[in-house]
Structures are given as structure tokens and as C-alpha cells.
Amino acid sequence: MMAQQHSIDGDRRDVVILGGGLVGTSLALALARIGVTSHVLDAADPQTQLAEGFDGRASAISTASWNMFENLGLASQLEPYGCPIAAIAVSDQRKMGELRFRPEPGDGTLGRMFANRQLRTALFAAMLQTPQISFHPSSTIVERRRDAHGVAVTRDDGARFCGSLLVAAEGRRSPTREQAGLAIASWDYGHRAIICGLAHEKPHENIAWEIFYPDGPFALLPMLDDAQGRHRTALVWTVAEREAAGWLKLGERAFVAEAAKRMGGVLGRLELVSARSSYPLAFHHAPTIVADRLALVGDAAHGIHPIAGQGLNLGLRDVAALAQVIEDGLQLGLEPGDGEVLRRYQNWRGLDDFTVALATDGLTRIFGVPGKAASAIRRLGMGAIERAEPVKRWFMDEARGVSGTLPRLLEA
């Protein structure tokens, strides 16, 4: 609901973005490309997020998302740090009937794996070099106001930042979304993802593995070799919430032995090369992602299971769509916060966000059904997909993010 009308004054730019993570900074850069200025306010200190070291946190960047980074001029900085995904192997507990997705010659890769730190470093450096973006780290917001004249946010030191449009890119627990009264559908999976980096004896051959167990998926994500030439993989291991503390406290040797058992020796001898961290797995989806002079992007709008590695890519699709509707609106004489601009964004992103969220939730539930009969049925289905090339291509196009109506930023 809109605040009472008042004169919006303060340090004014076109758009105020709350949240300076991967999605928020990508949006600022996408807007700068079309001449739209922005304030980016983030609660964190970037130096802590850009610290040296591989902590296992990594993201799959789809073909479409990579196209966006190329269009934003970031490809040359990122290219040396990305590990191409040549194939995706899907397995039910390493039993017979694996499903493999491998693109046709000329189609390129299925995506690239990046350590999150490398993505942050490139986006942060580009942001600091872009005059259209004013970055404000370590910012605690104490007031958000929206009215017919624009938007304004006030920091705890009294500084005010104003614009035509407010964008919430603050993540799953977005206070801006909550203040605006935008409802979400949500539930807890009762699981936790354990994340770490592994070095291993055998090369991964650029294959990403998704091995499903009744407790949850066990994902092996290929990374570039380290400076010592060791083969590396990022592990995302889903365990029951009630068992997570035990897995995190388990001695390094025992933890690695259990991980090796679950991957069936596919990578040979293993070594833990980072600390283990974890986060709870939950689902949330906001059916309405706009309000007066407000738009939600990324995890503020939707939070999905990491089962298919689509969380960040979904947020980057939000970025590309919002930037395009703002650009198209400017050509018609509409400001970024105009209601017609935001209606176009809602109509474009609402269905896609929901479809992807529903698909990942369904996969999580299907592969979580225990028992030999359920496993046999799943493997029969996987075998049918393996033999049906048109179906396999559809799944690969979805994974690469190249299906449907794409915003211009996502096109090659």
C-alpha cells in the first residue's frame, strides 16, 4: 500500500536497488547499459564476500545467463574462471538406468560452473567502474517510502536515497517485500544442504552429477583445477535437517569416506579442500512480484530447491526482463516506476517463475519417495527419456535457459 503523498527529496537516481548480491549488481549493470542510473544499497561489507579462498559455494551459469554476461561486457573477466559443463548425469542411487544429457555438436556447453567469489569479484569491479551506479555498502535501512512522486529509503545515519522505482533484491527474507504486504506461498523441506569443496584423483571430465537418494540429491559440480593442478568439484549434499549437525561435526576422514561411498568411486580418492557450510532448504514463491513503484527480483520473489541449479539463473532472467520493460517504457516516455512498466514485468515473469519453482519442487518430491518399487519406476522413466531425443533436447533447452520468449539481454 502506498504511503501518504509527500515530496521525495534526497540523493536521487532513477532506480533504488536494495541488495548488492549477484542479482542486485547484475540489475544495476543491466540498467546502466541503457543509461538508467541507480543507487545500490547493501547491508554487507563487500571485502568479506571477496576474501581469497575456495569455500565450495558455486553457481551454474546457464547458456542464456552467460549471454547476458557477454552482453554486459563481463565475459572476458569471467571466462578464465568458468568450468564448462559438457554433460549432466542423473542417477537414482548409482543404480542401472542413468540418464545423460549431452548437447549436440555446435550447441556449445550446458553451462559453466563458477565459484561464487569469482562472480562477485567481476560484478563488483564492473559496478565500481560504472558512473551510472552509486554503491553504498554496509547500509542499514530504517525507512522505505513510496508515493506518487517516487521512492525514498533512509539509512540509519540519516542519508536518503531517492528514485522512481524501488527494487527488492535482498534475498529470501526480504523486509521490503514484507513491508509491501506481498504474500508468499512457502514450506520447509526439512532438509539442509551441506556445501564444500573437494579435490579428487580422477578428472571429472566436465560432467555434473545429480545422484538422488531418498534423503535428497547429492550433486557434484565440476570446477577448474586449482593452482597445484588438483582436480576440483563442488559438493552440494542434501541431508535431513535432524542429521545435519552430525554430518557437519563428523571428522574430515569419516565425512570424505561417506561422500566417496555415495558417489560410487566416480572421482577416485577424495580430499576436503574447504570448510563445510550449510543452509536450510525451503520453498517460497510470491505470486505478485510488483506493487506501486516496487519490483521484486531474485530470491525476494522466489526461492527454489537447488536440485536443478536454476536459482541464480531464475534471478538473472528477472533482471533481463525488468531491464527490458524499463527500456521499452523509456522509449514510450514512461519512467521506470510507471505502473504499466511494472505490469509488463509481472505478466512476463510471473508464469515462468512459478513454472520453474513448481518443476523443481516436483522433482524433489518424486525422487524423495523411498523404496525399491519407487526407484524402479523412476529408472524406467529415466530410461524412456534417455531414448527419446526430442524430450532430452527439451530438457537441455530448459537447463540452458534458451526456451520460451527471451529478453534481449539473454540472447546471443
From TrEMBL:
InterPro entries: FAD-bd, FAD/NAD-bd_sf, Ubi_Hdrlase_CS, UbiH/COQ6, UbiH/COQ6_monooxygenase. SUPFAM superfamilies: FAD/NAD(P)-binding domain (SSF51905). Residues 14-326 form the FAD-binding domain. Pathway: Cofactor biosynthesis; ubiquinone biosynthesis. It comes from the Bacteria. Its cofactor is FAD. Keywords: FAD, Flavoprotein, Monooxygenase, Oxidoreductase, Ubiquinone. PANTHER family: UBIQUINONE BIOSYNTHESIS MONOOXYGENASE COQ6, MITOCHONDRIAL. NCBIfam families: Ubi-OHases. Belongs to the UbiH/COQ6 family. This is UbiH/UbiF/VisC/COQ6 family ubiquinone biosynthesis hydroxylase. It comes from Croceicoccus esteveae.
